[in-house]
Amino acid sequence: MWEKYRKEAAEGIMVVAVTTIAVYVGFRFLLPLFLPFLLALLFSRLLLPAVAFLKTRFRIEQKTGGIVVISVVTALSLLLSFGVIWLLIRQLQTLLFHLPAIFSRVEALGEQFGLEVLQLQRKDVADYIARLGQTATKEGQRFLMGFVRNVLSGIWVVFIVVLSTFFMMRDRSDLEVMFQDSAFSRESKKIGKKLSQAATAYGKSFVLNTLVVFVVCSVGLMLVKNRYSIVAGLGISLLDALPVLGSGMILLPLSAYYFFNGRLFAGVIMILLYLICELLKEMIETKVVRNKTGLQPVFTITAMYIGIKLFGIFGFVLGPMGLLLIRAIFHLWLEYEYPDN
User: Fold this and answer.
1) Is the pLDDT of residue 298 over 50?
2) What is the pTM of this model?
3) How would DSSP label each residue in 268-312?
4) How many helices (H) and strands (E) does the chain have?
5) Which is nearest to 216 in space by CA: 275, 139, 140?
6) Given a cut of 80, is residue 146 above it in pLDDT?
7) Residue 168 and residue 174: Cα distance in Å, rounded?
8) Higher model confidence: residue 161 or residue 337?
9) 107 neighbors 117 (Cβ within 8 angstroms)
């Protein structure tokens, strides 16, 4: 009896080990090649309900509905992106102009508590910015060439994603029939369904969390008449998307700064923003991620940590996705080896 259990345990460990290695190799070397098409698959799943609505409500055929939905989503995304970029550029210009004064105020605040926060005077900061400008001018041509190359590459990738999304939506029925006729359709369908649900859940969670934190923080900072509300809101939302870090790293010190300067209303608003962001994040993650993936928070955090160690910032998503893939393959192996259990 013990020999049987030991053999089964050894086989299970071997399956998990081989699967883990295969997942790592796939994520490291194959994923970058197929990422645009995986994104297209994800977007097509997200946009299909809108196409189905147009077909049911207005009797618009799937091909035309796909063109309409993709065109509207692309136009709105570009419009929103250009608007946010324009506001960011304006607020960054204002921030750079007032940077010496900001450093001086921080130093003065530190002196009130007997702290030497910064040993920089306004002239020192201005000289430092001027040196940065000279360095940037010398490296400007190289940076510009790299920037243009990256922009063109990004435009090409976006074009491939949009085009692939359209074809996947248009030919959905044919692709499903072709997939069902394949040799591993049953196994692939089970694994693909779990991964698709997880990818959709993580994608929705990331986008919703980032947008919610960005909007809430930007509006809250506007209420306290912060001239850098858009820049700060974007920075807080991106920081909040990272594991361990969160909006509190900015909002709570900012609240303390307002309290020390006698702006009680602004300080209270910052605390309320932090509480609202945390509450909304918890609601989104509970409803969108945990209910779809079935992963407990401790396993998700562990997978994120390992993923970041292996893949950098993208491991924030690849870690949990890899864990779900390993679990799905292991469960599939159990069904084949021990169907009665």
Assistant:
1) yes
2) 0.66
3) HHHHHHHHHHHHHHHHHIIIIIIHHH---HHHHHHHHHHHHHHHG
4) 13, 0
5) 275
6) no
7) 9
8) 161
9) yes
Q: What is the 3-state secondary structure (H, E, C) of 217-246?
A: HHHHHHHCCCCCHHHHHHHHHHHHHCCCCC
Q: What angle do CA 315, 317, 322 make, to 5 degrees?
A: 80
Nearest alpha carbon to residue 326 among 76, 15, 98: 15
Run of H or E including 47: helix 31-58
Write the CA distances from 319 to 15, 39, 290, integer angstroms: 19, 17, 15
Closest by CA to 320, choosing from 304, 305, 341, is 304
Rounded to 5 degrees, φ, ψ at 335 are -65, -35
- Cβ–Cβ under 8 Å, residues 213 and 247: yes
Percentage of residues of the chain with pLDDT beyond 90: 18
pLDDT tens digits for range 187-201: 677 777 777 777 677
pLDDT average, residue stretch 121-128: 53
pLDDT in tens, 172-221: 777 777 767 665 566 677 777 777 777 677 777 778 888 899 999 999 99
Q: How many CA atoms lie within 13 A of 230 on its CB side?
A: 15
DSSP per position, 117-131: -----HHHHHHHHHH
- Greatest mean pLDDT range, 125-139, 175-189, 202-216, 234-248: 202-216
Tokens of 128: 């430092």
Phi and psi, residue 189, nearest 5°:
-65, -40
| Amino acid at position 275, single letter | L
Domain ranges of the chain: 35-103+115-181
303, two tokens: 């997978």
